């Protein structure tokens, strides 16, 4: 029975729920960190305040009208903070804190339970969204855990800034996770990550319209400018654009919101807080992009370009030990790159995956037809034995990849390029031998069905490239029928269900493959000299036994004669 490769960790609802619950507990602890460390009930008059507490949003809105007649600097300071860290605590301060933020006086288990449930549901719905859109690659343990780690760090930084500094709330690093992970996932999921980040810091303080709209606009602007190949400079430019657009919306928001917005140039101002916070997120993303890419399970661009070098030791060994497989991989790489580019997938990753997907064939290259010259060893083997020989190249490829320290993302191509497909040739051969008991499972590959667009592209391209070699007349109709049949077969068997490919993607893949094969098998115009060669009489090689030299003579065609007509030879 073939061994099935494990599915993504977060594809299991119960395992995902346990992790989400653990992360929700940690986020709840961070949310109530100020209360756990120094609850207001334990404060003493005359002692310095250990925590900064800000005015709730509703109270601040009312204070705008009450303090409008006062000095603006005094009004801004009075309405923004109930007490700053380090200020002397008085009985009036504690009374005001008790009236306005009673939930911070001591730990309220009922409120904490509600926050815990909110966090758990937010994370669960995020996982369900990833499963719904079919992005199985993003459900892997290391990928989700890396994302959760930076969401937790962003909330911890927000909690510390909120409770122990006087910086504006707009300076909180809400956009960090979205800017950092968008090049690794996609813009659509990047928007979702930003919403999740905003939701996770919500229980820390009461939201105003500005605290929802401004970070949303600023973060989404940065996400829109990020692409898959974004480097450190792109992160910084995207954050600058996000800061500029956010500041413009901040000015527009000031025209209708009841909350007073500070446009001063002091450190505590909302304007500098928004600009500085967004830029800080971009700088942090540029700094952590390389290690985060490795932690996430993706391949950094610099590493990927080294793997694309045909002088890589693994590729040199493949060219030497299995030259036919090497040429097959090169042909597949050209096709996979074109197809990936057609649907907006990672074309460089698809090309690298095509280079390395069959490296396991180096161990026993003679069992694969592209390396055979003369005798076929499968003629002497039972169908089950032949299937075992072919199946072994996947495990061998994984072993070689691990020995060469190839990234896990490239190993996906080794594992998934055949998926759980059946070796139909040897299964049919077994049936033809009239075997009484045939186990179809013995003719299945031990891989895993594709979990990304790039590995699904390789599966389709591998089948099309191999089948195209059997075309007798590779005209447009034959090529189109072949491509449609291969794609439909993969869909029918469910091999592409977890790849994230849409019907629109499959249509574009088909069109791209048809154009590619038409260019490869196009019929050239017959030149005049070729027509003359066809009209010439055939050449006859007559051996000269005396001189040991072969003499070439032109054999003249014999004209047909009437039955009664005589030739010179008849006379």
The helicity comes to: 55-70%
Q: Total helix count?
A: 23
Task: Please list the strands of the largest sheet in the order they lie side by side.
Answer: 1-2
CATH class call of the largest domain = Mainly Alpha
| Assigned CATH architecture of the largest domain | Orthogonal Bundle
CATH topology of the largest domain: Hypothetical protein af1432
Shape: elongated
Number of domains as seen in the coordinates:
3
Secondary-structure element order, as H and E?
HHEHHEHHHHHHHHHHHHHHHHHHHEE
What Rg, in angstroms, do the CA atoms define?
35 Å
Largest sheet composition: 2 strands, antiparallel
Could you report the average pLDDT, rounded to the nearest whole number?
83
Care to count the β-strands? 4
Backbone structural class: mainly alpha
Folded structure, characterized:
The protein is an all-alpha fold and 571 residues long. It has 3 domains: 16-29 and 109-296, Arp2/3 complex 21 kDa subunit ARPC3; 33-106, no CATH class; 303-520, Hypothetical protein af1432, CATH 1.10.3210. Helix content is 58%, strand content 3%. The protein contains 23 helices and 4 strands. The chain has helices at residues 13-31, 33-37, 57-66, 72-80, 91-100, 109-132, 141-164, 176-181, 187-200, 209-224, 232-253, 270-296, 301-307, 313-321, 323-343, 347-356, 383-403, 408-416, 424-432, 453-468, 476-492, 503-520, 528-535; strands at 53-54, 81-83, 539-544, 549-554. It has a two-stranded antiparallel sheet. Strands 3-4 form a two-stranded antiparallel sheet. A hairpin with a 4-residue loop joins strand 3 and strand 4 (549-554). Helix 15 runs antiparallel to helix 16 and helix 20 crosses helix 21 (476-492). The N and C termini lie far apart (82 Å).
């Amino acid at each position: 029975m073939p061994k099935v490769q494990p599915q993504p960790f977060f594809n299991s609802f119960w395992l995902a729920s346990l992790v989400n619950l653990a992360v929700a507990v940690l986020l709840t602890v961070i949310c109530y960190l100020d209360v756990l460390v120094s609850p207001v009930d334990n404060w003493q008059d005359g002692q310095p305040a250990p925590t900064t507490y800000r005015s709730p949003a509703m109270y601040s809105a009312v204070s705008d009208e009450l303090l409008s007649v006062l000095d603006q600097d005094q009004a801004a300071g009075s309405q923004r903070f109930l007490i700053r860290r380090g200020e002397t605590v008085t009985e009036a301060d504690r009374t005001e804190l008790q009236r306005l933020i009673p939930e911070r006086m001591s730990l309220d288990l009922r409120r904490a339970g509600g926050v815990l449930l909110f966090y758990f549901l937010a994370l669960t719905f995020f996982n369900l969204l990833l499963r719904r859109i079919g992005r199985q690659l993003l459900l892997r343990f290391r990928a989700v855990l890396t994302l959760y780690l930076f969401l937790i760090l962003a909330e911890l930084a927000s909690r510390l800034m909120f409770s122990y500094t006087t910086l504006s709330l707009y300076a909180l690093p809400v956009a960090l996770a979205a800017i950092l992970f968008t090049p690794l996932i996609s813009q659509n999921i990047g928007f979702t990550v930003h919403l999740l980040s905003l939701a996770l810091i919500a229980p820390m303080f009461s939201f105003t319209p500005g605290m929802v709209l401004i970070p949303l606009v600023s973060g989404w602007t940065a996400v829109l400018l990020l692409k898959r190949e974004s480097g450190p400079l792109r992160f910084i430019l995207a954050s600058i654009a996000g800061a500029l657009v956010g500041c413009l919306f901040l000015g527009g928001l000031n025209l209708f919101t009841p909350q007073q917005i500070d446009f001063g140039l002091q450190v505590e101002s909302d304007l500098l807080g928004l600009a500085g916070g967004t830029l800080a997120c971009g700088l942090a993303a540029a700094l952590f992009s390389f290690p985060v890419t490795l932690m996430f399970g993706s391949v950094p661009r610099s590493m990927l370009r080294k793997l694309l070098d045909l002088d890589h030791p693994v590729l040199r060994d493949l060219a030497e030990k299995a030259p036919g497989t090497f040429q097959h991989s090169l042909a597949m790489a050209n096709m996979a790159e074109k197809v990936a580019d057609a649907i907006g997938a990672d074309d460089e990753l698809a090309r690298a995956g095509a280079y390395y997907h069959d490296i396991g064939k180096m161990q026993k290259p003679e069992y694969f037809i592209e390396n055979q010259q003369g005798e076929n060893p499968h003629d002497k083997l039972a169908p089950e034995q032949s299937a075992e020989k072919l199946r072994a190249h996947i495990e061998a490829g994984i072993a070689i990849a691990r020995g060469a320290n190839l990234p896990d993302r490239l190993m996906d191509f080794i594992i998934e390029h055949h998926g759980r497909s059946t070796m139909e040739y040897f299964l049919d051969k077994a049936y033809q031998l009239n075997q009484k008991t045939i186990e179809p499972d013995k003719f299945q590959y031990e891989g895993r069905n594709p979990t990304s667009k790039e590995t699904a592209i390789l599966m389709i391209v591998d089948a099309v490239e191999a089948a195209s070699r059997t075309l007798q007349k590779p005209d447009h109709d034959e090529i189109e029928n072949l491509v449609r049949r291969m794609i439909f077969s993969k869909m029918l068997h469910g091999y592409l269900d977890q790849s994230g490919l849409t019907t629109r993607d499959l249509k574009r893949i088909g069109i791209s493959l048809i154009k590619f094969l038409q260019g490869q098998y196009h019929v050239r115009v017959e030149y005049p000299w070729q027509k003359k060669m066809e009209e010439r009489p055939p050449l006859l090689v007559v051996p000269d036994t005396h001189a040991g030299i072969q003499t070439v003579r032109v054999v003249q065609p014999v004209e047909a004669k009437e039955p009664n007509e005589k030739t010179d030879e008849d006379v």
